Amino acid sequence: MAELIIEELQTGNGASAKPGDLASVHYTGWLSNGKKFDSSVDRNQAFEFALGAGEVIPGWDQGLVGIKPGGKRKLTIPPDLAYGPIGAGGIIPPNATLVFEIELLGIK
Hints:
This protein is mainly beta. It has a single domain (about 5-105), classed as Roll (Chitinase A, domain 3), CATH 3.10.50.40. Helix content is about 10%, strand content about 35%. It has helices spanning about 40-45, 60-65; strands at about 5-10, 20-30, 35-40, 45-50, 70-75, 100-105. Strand 2 (about 20-30) and strand 3 (about 35-40) form a beta hairpin.
């Protein structure tokens, strides 16, 4: 079983994100072959979710704990912490490893 890989690209300031926080992020996601499949940056629309509440894939819930506002992380997420054997919406194939760059804009 592959592991979640967390790379700190930029350190933020202030309080660290914890489960239960409402996180506002910008993100871009790629398949492991480098094909971009989604980006809030391209849409110029931040994405909000409750950290640790299961609203996003497990790799996000685990990989963003402790990030601070203004921080940016690269997450390499194995299939069992992403969309697994099912994939998603014809965009993400079954058993895909995903790579995300995620910037925390703020927490509430």
